[in-house]
Automatic annotation (TrEMBL), chains A, B:
Main enzyme class: hydrolase
Keywords of the record: Hydrolase, Magnesium
Any one GO molecular function term: magnesium ion binding
EC number: 3.1.3.71
Gene transcribed to yield this protein: comB
Entry cofactors: Mg(2+)
Origin species: Bernardetia litoralis (strain ATCC 23117 / DSM 6794 / NBRC 15988 / NCIMB 1366 / Fx l1 / Sio-4) (Flexibacter litoralis)
Protein name as catalogued: Probable 2-phosphosulfolactate phosphatase
UniProt record similarity statement: Belongs to the ComB family.
Coiled coil spans: none
């Protein structure tokens, strides 16, 4: 924290960039807009009570014997032998309470930060205001961690980071050039977010898989009010 | 090259991101706006005939015995024992013909790509149009490699990448989300480039070192018409 007592805000455009930052005492906001973190928020807002994010498919199957529903994707497609995929609509079906989930990028990003950050929360356009309000109330340094695509930069996560940075501008010190860049980029496309993202690589990839509805859903702003937080490897909603 | 015979254009926001791309047969445009690549362009436009970029300070001193002027910086400051620093004004003084140069980021970025890319050229706002025209005439895939700051993203190099991507839009297929993001960010700040970059981390760092004039100089668009290219480890201007 700096001399006039505002916490800092930083953005990592990819999980690898976390290696440049000391996460000690900081809140990490993990973001994977298409679709992992949007789906986590949507499910936990709609009746799911526990989501365990895991890196390996084998780990997910291990929880199946403990009455967890297995969910996830690899390369944007449902995993063979798993109960459900990574669509927010599946997770909102109100059939499931406990889900174990593994995805190409989002759950890996959680793994990257969970041992070093003081707290890990889940961000998406769906709960942008709720995340904003929570962070403003904590008075702690924040790092927004974009999941990206297999280690590379992606547009949708970085635009969300810009949106969140703008919301937090007056309460935090922006640190690093990523905040500057992402906020300018978000400002210039916010009225055409969906149109701009239709040109993005991941949108085109998922469109081929027939999940355009999922993506339109994930771009809704403030549809939900919950903030998922990682407690002992389980994501649950923060108390309101 | 894809089916309708346009070459591709990609951006790496940091040298590390090059690891995701096969550079074989591609032209790498190395960018370090504050100040290495701007200074190389300015020097070579003003009487310098050879610039050898090296990674280590010891390597630079080795060339001193071969009548090379030693130039460079570490952390934005002139290196003790070197003849000159990394200011474009020093390199334009028309006193020197042959310079060996080592910098914190720019010369490292050249090192990262020089063995894999088919050709390495030097980009900056100072020679934006010249670089654009050269690339349009080659009909080869292009990768813009931002030097960043010690492995991290920086605003000025990424904004230049956005500017160059926009110039090449009709002649190249944009590949990856970086092109999309950088071009939107550049479009939104291009009329206030200097004002926006005054908030950037590297600008503030260099401002403390008293080189604000250097940075204003480096943000001039199309001041020079030369395109430096790496031949056998030596940067020289491409023939006009």
């Amino acid at each position: 924290m700096n001399k006039i007592q505002k916490p800092t805000l930083e953005i990592c455009f990819t999980p690898d960039a976390v290696s440049f930052i000391d996460l000690t005492g900081k809140i990490a906001v993990v973001v994977d807009i298409f679709r992992a973190t949007s789906t986590m928020v949507a499910g936990l807002a709609s009746g799911v009570t526990h989501v365990i994010p895991v890196v390996d498919m084998a780990d997910a199957l291990h929880y199946k014997s403990q009455d967890y529903v297995t969910a996830g994707e690899r390369n944007g497609e449902k995993i063979e032998g798993f109960d459900i995929g990574n669509s927010p609509f599946e997770h909102m079906a109100q059939e499931f309470k406990k889900i174990v989930m593994t995805t190409t990028n989002g759950t890996q990003a959680i793994e990257t930060v969970k041992n070093d950050a003081e707290q890990v929360i889940i961000g998406s356009f769906l709960n942008l205001r709720a995340v904003t309000n929570y962070l403003k109330a904590q008075n702690k340094d924040v790092v927004i961690v974009c999941a990206g695509w297999k280690g590379r930069f992606n547009a949708e996560d970085s635009l969300f980071a810009g949106a969140l940075a703008l919301k937090l501008r007056s309460d935090f010190w922006w640190k690093g050039d990523e905040t500057l860049f992402a906020s300018h980029s978000y400002s210039s496309v916010k009225n055409n977010l969906s149109k701009m993202l239709k040109q993005s690589s991941h949108y085109k990839r998922l469109e081929k898989n027939g999940v355009s509805d999922d993506m339109e859903f994930c771009l809704q702003i403030d549809k939900f009010k919950n903030v998922p937080v990682l407690n002992e490897n389980i994501l649950e909603n923060l108390p309101k």
